[in-house]
Amino acid sequence: MEERDLAGVCGLYCGLCPRFQSQARSRCLGCQLGEQHSYCSIYRCCVTRRGLFTCADCDDYPCERLLRVLGVEEGLDSFISHKPALPNLDRIREVGLETYLEEQRERRLLVEHLLANYNEGRSMSLYCRACALMPPGLIRQAIGKMERILVNQQVDESDLKAKARAMRATIQDLASQADIDLRLRKKR
């Protein structure tokens, strides 16, 4: 799979989505591959109707449809955070798709490291949100802190649940210090 295949049409980066990172049969390959996203009005408008790669290429960006689907006006998320979508599209417009994808690749590799080493089966969504919303340097800092915790035997390296709990707490603490809210915005 090429990195280009992970560029979401709407500005979300598929490599940081729990549905992409999942190993389940319902795994999503991202909106650039396959027909699984033909239901998406953003995909239909951008790719099918206009022949564009992402909404960043559109003369009408940001349009009402994109803002509505991303829940910008209501400030709502679905199972993933929509917060980085518009900044991602702005970044594509600013530096180009290839540079943006290099930046996102770093984030994807970080989430894959977290999943391979600190996922007890319940942390995937948090790790994906953290890697999408936090600067990569903070994620690397969390990994470094966890490595020191393990070396100092503050957490048993063979206890995956304890490692996951400690990593989640470390990420939450660093996010809080940086004033980054990792919670999904849901209707009340």
SS elements, strand count: 0
Q: How much strand?
A: under 5%
The backbone outline, from C-alpha atoms, is elongated
Low-confidence stretches: none
Q: Look at the structure and give the mean pLDDT.
A: 91
Radius of gyration: 17 Å
In short:
The protein has 188 residues and is mainly α.
Would you give an account of this structure?
This protein is mainly alpha-helical. It contains 8 helices and no strands. α4 (85-95) crosses α5. The relative contact order is 0.13. The model has no long low-confidence stretch (mean pLDDT 91).
Helix and strand layout, with pairings?
Blueprint: H1 18-21, H2 41-49, H3 64-69, H4 85-95, H5 97-118, H6 124-133, H7 136-151, H8 160-177
For the structure shown, list the relevant keywords:
8 helices; 188 residues; elongated; mainly alpha
